[in-house]
Amino acid sequence: MILGERIKRIRTFRGLTQRELGLKLGYEERNADVRVAQYESGYRVPKKDTLMEISKILNVNYINFITEAPGCAEDIMQTFFWLDEDNRNTFHLFQLVRNPGKCNASDDKSVCYNDSDEWPTHAPVGMWIDYGLVNEFLREWCLRKEQLKSGEISEGEYFEWKINWPTTSSSVDEQGNDKKNNSYQWRKNR
User: Fold this and answer.
1) Is 79 in the same domain as 145?
2) pTM of the full structure
3) Runs of H (alpha helix) within the chain
4) Residues 78 and 59 in one domain
5) pLDDT tens digits for 23-78?
6) Which of 55, 73, 119, 156 could tie 62 with a disulfide, CB 3.0–4.6 Å?
7) Domain range spanning residue 30?
8) Are 127 and 50 members of one domain?
């Protein structure tokens, strides 16, 4: 998703009109909605300070709109999250189970899976990322997608978790146990 689409997606999720967001940004009433429409359509690109203000108004992490360090773990995850918003079927996450025996005798890197209707007709290609922090983040994302699929969390909670990540992030161990040590409360009281 491009910047303007992200602004629109989050603005509508928060239930604000273009006019309301424009007024909160301090634009005059006669053109408040026009300015936001220009941002959302990509006709105009907001300055960094405006993007920071939009983040505050929409109560989201600014990294949804501003990349401070391209290629850092947070940037990688934001790219993944927004690809997931474009198409929820893009990423299929699962926790690999370690085989206790080491197999250094072969260069075979194949991973076997149990075929089911959930897998594509062609064998998928897998990858792992040798970046400890990203692996930790992916482990938590795997848990959140499982919670969404099972109905334990709603679509709204899932989106809230993503748009305020990493403040919504909590530690998840290799067994999928959530320590719930996040600093931002993203789940609705149940």
Assistant:
1) yes
2) 0.85
3) 3-13, 18-24, 32-41, 48-58, 73-86, 132-150, 155-163
4) no
5) 999 999 999 999 999 999 999 999 999 999 999 999 999 999 999 888 888 999 99
6) 55
7) 3-64
8) no
